[in-house]
Amino acid sequence: MAENREHRGAVEPELDPVEYTLRKRLPHRLPRRPNDIYVNMKTDFQAQLVRCQKLLDGGARAQNACTEVYIHGWGLAIHRAINIALRVQAGSFGSLQVAANTSTAELVDDLEPETDAREPLTRIRNNSAVHIPAFRVTPRWGDHQTDEITSRRSDFTAQSSKE
Domains in the chain, ordered, with CATH? Predict the structure, then answer.
């Protein structure tokens, strides 16, 4: 198979879509952990959101709940992955935090000729990706929360003393 690796400044020759069939390969080394969710544009948004929530909540029986879920989006699905992460965080009432990491991946496309007269080609292109861990945080008692509890306690004692 001949490789068509062009320099960054070079112009790619026009390929006739009738002469070649484009086959996009999967990215290298995709993590395959049970708490990884790969967001795409084909699957329903609500279904992907429910899957994230089920992983974090542990399903109906609350078994095997994950403390961390990794949401991955490639190319066109980056916007959807960010949306899902923000919706999961908003629905957690402050018990989840998210942190986005971006990357660029080198993807390989195979161009298979429709006729035997042409050579198969390989094209390399860059694609953006986002990786968002959504993880549970333990609530910390800060000064603001302590002050609020103290003020509520003093309001309660003031009302009790009047009665």
Answer: 20-136 (3.30.110.20)
